[in-house]
Amino acid sequence: MATPAKPRVVALEEHYFDPILTRDWPRAGHMRENAIIERLDTLGELRLKEMDEAGIDLQVLSQSAPSLQRLDAESAAKIAPGVNDRLAETVKAHPTRYAGFAALPTPDPKAAANELERCVTKLGFKGAMIHGLANEVFLDDKRFWPIYERAQALDIPIYLHPSVPLPVVMDAYYKDYAKDFPMVVRAAWGYTVETATQAIRMVLSGVFDAYPRLKIILGHLGETLPFLVWRIDQALARPGAKTLSFREAFCGHFYITTSGNFSNPALLCSVMELGIDRILFAVDWPFVANKPAVQWMETVPLCDEDKAKILSGNAQRLLRL
User: Fold this and answer.
1) Ordered alpha helix ranges (H), the chain
2) Staple partner for 77: which of 35, 105, 177, 278, CB 3.0–4.6 Å?
């Protein structure tokens, strides 16, 4: 009996620093780790070496947070084309190893929609990534809906990536412990609360009624929402609320990745709630190492066919790789 072919491995949330966009950024906080900075700054030999060592065939590259989301509208719109053009040159140099997610100047929504279209139709990008709020404005705000209208028309997904919470939230929720446990504001909890709230607000806003083919990706196995979707749906349906099926909207419009969350129970919960076809492989490199992610996938209690879907099949279908 023939041995099944090893599935291709495609990783969807793999970051880098654009040299112009990040030139004047303070390298502070969790960025003090020199090994992480070194890897964010490289799109060449070191990155490819670590991909090869882990057995990753292709990374979908995305600018690291906060990307263009905290610039003023004029600066963001001006810088965005260069950021994306430089990424496109990298992808062109390594077409079998890299693909790209566009960085969008969300402070100028019209420019962001136009840049999304340019990146997809001219540069061959597979979607876009948005990092948190746009200058403290939630992404369900109707000023951003032209971006979602264009994403639906182009039939590409938008990846909602975490960024730090609002300052008032950081102060009220985390300041007592942020000094001793700095990641509580970020990957340990703050990122999850912020990004899950963005996703919930998008469902409540009606954007999926306006754009019924809009597709959104969340990392970290859905920022806890697969675990909570039944309860959210049931609670929102109690008397006095507008008619809304949160569960139907979430499971019908969202895809999730494994980035930075290599937990069998969490994965199985996600499979049971969303279905295997909506789960995609990601590492969250370089904040998380490649090898543990790939090694974990070898051990998850799923059949080979389902593992292959997560490792690349679903991404190839969603992103048309």
Assistant:
1) 34-40, 45-54, 73-93, 109-121, 145-154, 167-169, 175-178, 190-205, 207-210, 225-236, 246-253, 264-274, 290-299, 304-308, 314-319
2) 105
